[in-house]
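Hey there, shall we discuss this one?
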Amino acid sequence: MGRNGRGDRSATDGGAEVVVERGPEESLTRAILRSVAALKGVAERDLDTLYESVDVEALESLVRHSSARDSRVRVEFTFQGCTVVVRGGETIRIAENQPPRSEEYPGQS
């Protein structure tokens, strides 16, 4: 989602993806929750807590440290059936995970 709060949705292996740019006053946690909720079409209050998927304090600290040192960081984790990739703290990419297609696992449907 851009700074205007709108997200770019595009198909990725049958799923949807958003690229989020965090606002200057928005926490990383808030941006992730807002974006996953928008991608899944649910209210933020209907999501599991982010703490169940990632150590939020450690993530925020790592991103702050990386920004202060002008270094690059990439953190990837799964939350609510989505893959969340944080790069540098300003850009977040979230993609819906898709179940494997049956042809990838012969004999299963």
Observations:
- Helices lie at 28-40, 56-68.
